[in-house]
Design a protein that fits this description.
single chain; 752 residues; alpha+beta; six-stranded antiparallel sheet; 24 helices; 49% helix
Length: 752
């Protein structure tokens, strides 16, 4: 027994050692890759900064010297060189990186230099072997020439010479304005003082001479600047073809034999090569600093391995129990999860010959997350989970399917499930206050029964899900599965698939239904209604595809299309009929509560040129109940922009009067269900009259929709309703038909 245990431990340590060796190797290679990658990114960033800053400085100096040359030309500097001292000194105050300015004739003779006293003997630049080449090159060009870096004895500084030819009005070379970048100063944004010490920087000319090298002693300047780049280095750079490719990262060995990681960038405008480098010695040190504690960690790990191995064995059973619980439960709500459901299916089927699945979903949860953030949404889910736990009994299970979806499995009798679903909706739809924000959650439930509707749990949940989506589509609280839903589900899937490209395929179009002044019967507004004609599915009702668009997130694209197209249509009608009227456009809950809705509306208004005071956004009362605070914020912002707010389907909700308090509503639309039978139902008639009276007291426009006969018109006129809308006057019209409708109305009015 002991030998067997010893062999087991030996095997364990051998395997463990192999693992540690592999892990160490992988860690070293991974760490080396990270160190080198970090260094490469740093080199690339600094190189880009150096290259762009140096090129930017050269452009600035070229412009400055061009302007300065023009001013000196105006002062006839060739005849009065010392009169220019004040002119050439002033730019040095704002450009301290420049060593000074000099003025030279085309024959090379300097006429004046900043801060050099009058009558001081000045040299001829053509006689200076370090200045001669760049001066001669300047005589042949019409732009600034950057010369070889050299020591100017007259001012006692190492400079990068800059020379600009100045031409007179006849195009004849007048003089050469010369300057130089002082390498002893740190004001230059591209020199080494601006960057980490371990980064080397070099600027190389096309003739392979250094213009600038960081971190070299002044005593070595001559060796670096008066000699070309070493042949060995040139051969390494040449093999990379760096001037052709523009940018490279590669390894080279410097003149001291040190291996460097190098990044280069070539500037094709000023023809210089920007090089940044870091030594591999520095990279090795970084790697060591990153790994030096690892070896100590391995030793300690070996010492404690056996100890922890013994202790952990005792904790295995407890940990296993915890893992099983974690695997079967949702971390956020602590409810059983889908894995639990899969594992318990057979056991559940063995226990219950008949049971029901209630598949429930929180309406507009995406909008809640978008507007208040996921932590807020998580808090809401926790509250709903607690409420669900409170409504179930011991022999029932409530499961979080994922996201905002929950499932209840119950063996209750099928005939009692509807009442149970109503009870759940009542409990879950109660007001919620989170972080001082008040919400009214809305739950929709789909129900399926085993084994009547399905013979497996997966199929049963699919049927319940089908019923859920149909309930959402019909805007009812719950729905039990029936076989008719299979066909409806297939049609819904077809609609969802075809909807994805409906706008792109130009299948969506807009109709406009007139709203007439109740007194004059003139058109004072139109309501924009979206329609969809699909080649495969035919004409599809908005009630079908709007719900699907909200669930799939396409409602924002549809809303943007509807608003923009309607604005252009109404502008065209105005132009053709010489009239103006209000445009009403519907907004869904997902649209209105989206964080970018206001910006999107204002963008469309600005793009189309549609007047804000002629635009009306229609919202439903149920939308406001979902999230009163957020809806109020958006509506108030719209109203401040001059856009009207219409409360649609007014009177159908349970808190219509409270909705009006504090909301910036400018118009009420009486739901057509009141108008339809108000002449045959005394209660509906009195409610309609009360709404009109209330609206008039609040100085709101009142729109009656669904007007279909003359008797309704007469009653609404006598009740002081503001606007009438319905098939009695006109069905929803195309742009052309609306123009004809308005023109005919105008002609009839003229004839009358």
């Amino acid at each position: 027994m002991f030998k067997k245990r010893l062999n087991t431990m030996t095997t364990f340590f051998i395997l463990f050692s192999i693992f540690v060796l592999i892990a160490t190797t992988v860690l070293i290679f991974t760490s080396w890759y990270e160190v080198k990658k970090k260094a490469t990114l740093e080199l690339q960033y600094i190189n880009k900064m150096v290259s762009s800053s140096y090129a930017s400085d050269l452009r600035q100096y070229e412009t400055l010297m061009g302007l300065l040359g023009a001013r000196l030309q105006e002062r006839n500097v060739l005849k009065h060189p010392y009169a220019a001292q004040k002119v050439i000194r002033r730019p040095l105050e704002t450009n301290p990186a420049l060593a000074g300015f000099g003025i030279a004739r085309p024959d090379g003779q300097l006429l004046g230099i900043s801060y050099i006293p009058k009558n001081y003997p000045l040299p001829n630049l053509l006689e200076d072997k370090h200045a001669r080449e760049s001066f001669q090159e300047t005589l042949k060009k019409r732009r600034m020439v950057v010369g070889h870096t050299y020591f100017v004895e007259l001012i006692g500084k190492w400079v990068i010479p800059l020379r600009v030819p100045i031409y007179d009005d006849r195009g004849k070379l007048s003089f050469i304005l010369t300057s130089g970048i002082d390498l002893s100063l740190s004001e230059n944004s591209w020199n080494s003082s601006s960057f980490p010490n371990h980064i080397g920087i070099a600027l190389v000319r096309d003739d392979n001479y250094f213009s600038y090298v960081s971190d070299i002693d002044k005593k070595d300047y001559s060796a670096w600047y008066y000699q070309p780049v070493p042949r060995e280095t040139l051969s390494q750079l040449g093999s990379k073809d760096i001037r052709a490719t523009g940018a490279n990262t590669f390894d080279i060995v410097d003149r001291s034999g040190n291996k460097l990681l190098v990044n280069s960038t070539y500037d094709r405008d000023f023809h210089f090569l920007s090089i940044t480098d870091v030594s591999y010695e520095k990279l090795y040190k970084d790697l060591y600093n990153q790994l030096n504690y690892f070896v100590l960690g391995i030793i300690l790990f070996y010492l404690f391995t056996l100890y922890f191995y013994t202790i952990n064995h005792k904790r295995d059973k407890e940990l296993t129990r915890e893992l099983i619980w974690t695997a079967n439960h949702d971390a956020l709500t602590t409810l059983p999860n889908r894995y639990f459901l899969q594992n318990k299916t057979k056991h559940w089927n063995d226990l219950h010959r008949n049971y029901s699945a209630l598949f429930m979903d929180l309406n507009n949860f995406k909008s809640i997350n978008d507007n208040y953030g996921h932590p807020f949404g998580d808090k809401l889910l926790i509250i709903l989970a607690k409420r669900l736990k409170s409504v179930i009994e011991k022999h029932e299970h409530v499961i979080r399917q994922g996201g905002d979806e929950f499932i209840i499995l119950t063996p209750r009798a099928p005939e009692s499930i509807a009442q149970f679903a109503q009870h759940i909706i009542h409990i879950l739809n109660e007001m919620v206050i989170i972080d001082n924000i008040t919400l009214y959650p809305k739950i929709t439930i789909g129900i399926a029964h085993y084994p009547q509707d399905a013979e497996s749990i997966d199929l049963l949940l699919s049927k319940a899900d089908m019923a859920l989506y149909k309930a959402k589509e019909n805007k009812i609280g719950y729905l039990e599965y029936s076989h008719k839903l299979d066909e409806a589900s297939k049609k819904r899937l077809d609609i969802e698939l075809q909807l994805r490209n409906a706008i792109e395929n130009d299948e969506m179009y807009m109709l406009l239904q007139p709203q007439l002044n109740a007194g004059t019967l003139e058109v004072e507004g139109v309501e924009a209604l979206i329609r969809w004609n699909n080649p495969k599915l035919g004409q599809i009702s908005p009630d079908q595809f709007i719900t699907i668009a909200e669930e799939t997130g396409q409602i924002h694209e549809l809303g943007h299309f509807a608003l923009k197209r309607a604005c252009y249509m109404v502008l065209k009608v105005w132009q053709e009929t010489n009239t103006t009227f209000t445009l009403s456009v519907n907004a869904s809950a997902d649209e209105l509560l989206h964080k970018d809705y206001l910006a999107q509306v204002l963008m469309v208004v600005e793009e189309t040129g549609f007047p804000k005071d002629k635009l009306m956004i229609e919202v439903t009362e149920s939308l406001l109940i979902n999230d009163v605070r957020k809806a109020k914020e958006v509506l108030t912002a719209l109203r401040l922009e001059g856009i009207g707010i219409s409360l649609d389907d007014f009177g159908t909700g349970y808190s219509s009067l409270s909705m009006l308090k504090g909301l910036p509503v400018t118009e009420l639309k009486i739901d057509q269900s009141f108008i339809f039978d108000m002449l045959h139902d005394e209660q509906n008639l009195q409610l309609t009259r009360s709404i009109i009276t209330l609206g008039n007291l609040l100085e709101l426009k009142i729109v009656a929709e669904g007007v279909e006969d003359e008797a309704q018109v007469f009653e609404l006129q006598n009740s002081d309703c503001t606007l009438l809308q319905g098939y009695y006057f006109s069905k929803p019209l195309s742009e052309t038909d609306l123009i004809t409708f308005i023109n005919n109305s105008i002609e009839n009015e003229v004839i009358a």
